[in-house]
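Transcription antitermination protein NusB, pasting as requested.
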Amino acid sequence: MKKNRRKARELALQGLYQRQLTGDPVDVIEAQLREHEEFAKIDDAHFAAMLRGAIKDAAALEAHIQPCLDRPLEELSPVERAILLLATYEFVHHIEIPYRVVINEAIELAKGYGGTDGYKYVNGVLDKLAAKVRTVEVTGKKPA
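C-alpha cells follow.
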C-alpha cells in the first residue's frame, strides 16, 4: 500500500500551526499527531522530516520566503505561514519532488485550511520562490 504524502503534509501543517500558537516542543506535537486516526496511512518518514525540519530550519526557510512577500512574515496568518514553511522546506530539502507538485500541494492545503483567497497568495509567493530556489527546474536552464 502506498503511503499518503498529502495527509502527511496536512498533519505537518497542523503541527506547525500548533507550534506557532503554543510554542510546544516538537516531540510533544509529533506525539500528539501520531495519535491521529489516519496516521497509519501516511508517509511517516516524510511527515517527520517536514515537521522536524521546518521547525529546526525555520529561520533559514523564512529568509528564503521573506523577499517574496509583500509584507513582513509576522503579518501572515499562522496557516499561510505554516504552509509556506512546509513548501519551502520541500523546495530546499526534497528536490526529488517536482516544484509544481510542491506548489499544488500547498495550494490544496491553503484551500482547505486558509482564508478565502489565501491560496492565491500562497501560489504567488511560491511561484516567485520556486524561480529563485529551483531555478534550473523552473527555467530549464542552468544559472549563468
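Note for the archive: The chain has one domain: 5-139.
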